[in-house]
Amino acid sequence: MKLNSLSPLTPKPTARRLKKNRPADCLDTVSLSRSGGSAGWRKAGLAAAAACSLGGLMASPASAASSTATVRVLTLNTWLDCKDGVDGIAEVLKASRADVVGLQEIGSCAEKLSDKLGYNLVKQDDWHAMLTRLPVESVTPGRHGMVVRLENGQPLAVFNAHLYHSPYQPYQLLGIPYGDGVFVKTEAEAQEQARLARGHDVTSILSDMAGVQAPMILTGDFNEPSHLDWTQRAAEAGRHPIKVEWPASKSFAEAGFKDSYRVVNPDELTHPGFTWTPRTADDDPKDHHDRLDFVLFKGDQIQPQAVEIVGESSPRSDIVVTPYPTDHRGVVAEFEVKP
Predict the structure, then answer these.
(1) Global pTM?
(2) Pick from 89, 84, 92: which is nearest to 111 by CA?
């Protein structure tokens, strides 16, 4: 949060040419991730993305697409560019068995993970990246997302987000000092502060999704809870101080996205799904545990079959990695995607 399964032996694919009707700049954006080094990737890839039109984002439907594909998608905040070491983060990715990974707070560690695990890398900027064992077809103009090709030939658009960390409204509501955040008391005040902190990020991501016709997934550390968690019921149970319809998750819901964890685990009290944080005790008066990391999805062709929390120990985690290397638990969702 606060700035505070991959098949690891799969050989790294070489640069692959995309379909001839895909713009050349879109081809460069992808192929440079496999050749020319990270410096060339950043420089040329960013320039290419600016020229990539929506026509290059959607691979044409594959005639071979005839069966349902299964894909596992992980979201993980690596904690200040793998500050506890790349090996620990690599173990989390292996344990998750993810086919696609959205990474936040990731810099040079992204290249190290790509080299170590043999996965395609899409570097979004100096603090976001995506890894995948699947073929990458294209990258969106705003670099919030990529289109991959599933084993059944179906294109899948995957976006990755790290919304701004400060001010952090749960702390503002609970009177916990953090950054320059002012204390607030009401739902309306919390919503206003959240929109000021993250509204631009949300708008930018939604704009980058415009025109995409494939099923979509959004991974991310939102640095903001979900409106599905801070309910009146949860407030009355003492889980959270008040009810808040948080604007980030609400905006994506209004855009047609569903929360995979809440689809599989609809009860916010019996299944809180906390991802923030394994680093403090449940009763720490200077913190508030919450669910900040999400795998959202959109489309009639896609449906979650299972969702697991990756973390340090049971019962907070379904997949346990010890020692656990980051201050966020990960979330891995398994989807079925129909052609």
Answers:
(1) 0.85
(2) 89
